[in-house]
């Protein structure tokens, strides 16, 4: 039996525009980190301004917290979030086979996209006042393959790939517990153990991948992620380090 982690609040909404927007609305009223889950989102968003399709029965949730520190440290929490999703899936299914983390912050199952994470920070000053970690997991239903852009990995659901029918509330409890575990490690020991744990679960490590930024495309061997979380790619023209890109296999 997984228990809810101490110190984290939680609210469950029937419907909202986006849990990320709800996080912005309530941020100033909170006294600690808070999970916001919604059964339906009417305007869910994914990375790079894409729409996120999440039929009811999937997990749509945002964790809002006050991270302390600058933008680089805040961004490293995308790896904390990805590890938490990975381990929550293991916790609810009892198996890790076929699970992998895709840089920067997707979780794959049997080679398809099971979950996506979108980080948004807001507030005044050099430090990040608030960090919202939006997490979508295809628990019951994957969006149709033609709803994702060309070249993107096929979406998969936990139900179709494993037969496990896990409801969003149950998954959120496992996710919140796993997140708390990795957050404690991150705050206590820094990014090193997070980086090591993420690399152990990384998809296509040591293999050829293509990285597309808004302006360039690089194909090479996925060598590692560096101490900041940047992608390290060895291309025929030398090493390339990328802070942001879309990855294609
Ligand atoms: O593009 C991605 O892979 C990131 C998807 C993030 C989706 C989640 S669902 C909960 C939260 N609310 C949103 O509007 N988006 C995130």
TrEMBL record:
> PROSITE patterns, per this entry?
BPL_LPL_CATALYTIC
Q: Which Gene3D superfamilies match?
A: Bira Bifunctional Protein, Domain 2 (3.30.930.10)
Q: Is this entry keyworded Ligase?
A: yes
Q: Which GO terms describe its cellular component?
A: cytoplasm
Q: Which EC number applies?
A: 6.3.4.15
List the InterPro entries: aa-tRNA-synth_II/BPL/LPL, Biotin_CoA_COase_ligase, BPL_C, BPL_LPL_catalytic
GO MF terms listed in the record are: biotin--[biotin carboxyl-carrier protein] ligase activity
* Record has Repeat as a keyword: no
Enzyme class, one word?
Answer: ligase
Q: Which SUPFAM superfamilies match?
A: Class II aaRS and biotin synthetases
Q: Ranges for the BPL/LPL catalytic domain? A: 1-187
Catalytic activities? biotin + L-lysyl-[protein] + ATP = N(6)-biotinyl-L-lysyl-[protein] + AMP + diphosphate + H(+)
Going by the UniProt record, its keywords in alphabetical order are: Biotin, Ligase
Q: Which NCBIfam families match?
A: birA_ligase (TIGR00121)
Task: Kindly provide the name given to this protein in its UniProt entry.
Answer: biotin--[biotin carboxyl-carrier protein] ligase
């Amino acid at each position: 039996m997984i228990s809810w982690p101490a110190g984290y609040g939680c609210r469950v909404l029937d419907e909202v525009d986006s849990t990320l927007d709800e996080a912005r609305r309530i941020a100033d009223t909170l006294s600690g980190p808070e999970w916001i889950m919604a059964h339906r989102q009417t305007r869910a968003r994914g990375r790079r301004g894409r729409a996120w399709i999440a039929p009811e029965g999937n997990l749509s949730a945002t964790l809002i917290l006050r991270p302390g520190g600058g933008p680089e440290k805040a961004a490293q929490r995308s790896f904390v979030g990805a590890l938490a999703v990975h381990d929550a899936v293991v916790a609810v299914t009892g198996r890790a086979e076929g699970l992998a983390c895709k840089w920067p912050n997707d979780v794959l199952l049997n080679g398809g996209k099971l979950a996506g994470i979108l980080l948004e920070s807001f507030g005044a000053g050099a430090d990040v006042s608030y960090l919202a970690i939006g997490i979508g997991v295809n628990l019951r239903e994957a969006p149709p393959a033609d709803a994702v852009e060309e070249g993107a990995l096929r979406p998969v659901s936990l139900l179709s790939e494993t037969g496990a029918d896990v409801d969003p509330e149950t998954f959120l409890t496992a996710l919140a517990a796993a997140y708390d575990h990795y957050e404690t490690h991150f705050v206590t020991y820094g990014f090193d153990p997070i980086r090591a744990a993420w690399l152990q679960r990384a998809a296509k490590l040591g293999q050829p991948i293509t990285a597309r930024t808004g302006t360039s495309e690089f194909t090479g061997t996925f060598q590692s992620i560096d101490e900041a979380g940047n992608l390290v790619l060895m291309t025929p023209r030398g090493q390339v380090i990328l802070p942001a890109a879309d990855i294609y296999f």
